[in-house]
Amino acid sequence: MFLGRVIGRLVASVVTPGMEGIPLLWVQPLDKHSRPEGKALVCADGTRMAGCGELVYWEASREAALTLSPTFVPVDHAVVGLVNDVMIDEDDGTPAFPPRADESPVATSASPAPRRKRKS
User: Fold this and answer.
1) In this predicted structure, what is the pLDDT of residue 43?
2) Beta bridge partners of 82
3) How many other β-carbons are positioned within 10 Å of the β-carbon of residue 17?
4) Residue 53 CB: number of other CB atoms within 10 A?
5) What is the pLDDT of residues 43-53, one digit of tens each?
6) Residues 107-116: pLDDT tens digits?
7) How many domains does the chain have?
8) Tell me: the pLDDT tens digits for 59-106?
9) For residue 42, is it within any domain?
10) CATH number of the domain bearing residue 18
11) Host domain of residue 11
12) Are 43 and 1 in contact (CB under 8 A)?
């Protein structure tokens, strides 16, 4: 799945059977830091809830066609969901998971959020 920002809506003058009532959106692909990446593309909105300015995640190719009802409609890209927040683990020396009890902890400036324990 890929991140994108909705930058506009489209209205089709001719609609393919199976695509009736599915909104079409202009989506600008983004990198993980929410910076534009590549050219804007048209996505079918399977959620039917995305609006201009919203952060969305989208799918491409066959998977895009599978997200819509009915499946296998002729689309190349589809909005799969809305994104509320993006959290990035940077490679700054902090572990992605907290250390186990038998490991020494890594000193960090901020304590990490509590996470589930690993199975041994």
Assistant:
1) 96
2) 56
3) 8
4) 9
5) 999 899 999 99
6) 444 445 555 6
7) 1
8) 999 888 888 888 888 899 999 999 988 887 766 554 444 445 554 444
9) yes
10) 2.40.50.220
11) 2-82
12) no
| Element (DSSP H or E) covering residue 66 | helix 62-66
Amino acid at 93: G
Find how far residue 10's CA is from the centre of its chain: 20
Q: Strands of the chain (E only): list them.
A: 2-10, 24-30, 41-45, 55-60, 77-82
In single-letter form, the type of residue at position 112 comes to P
Amino acid making up residue 39:
K
Nearest Cα residue to 64 out of 73, 77, 74, 48 = 77
Q: Which of 84, 116, 87 is nearest to 100 (CA)?
A: 116
In angstroms, the Cα distances linking 5 to 8, 47, 82, 105 are 9, 14, 10, 38
Look at residue 97 in the predicted model and tell me its pLDDT.
43
d(CA 102, CA 67): 44
Give the Cα separation of 46 and 9 in Å (integer). 14
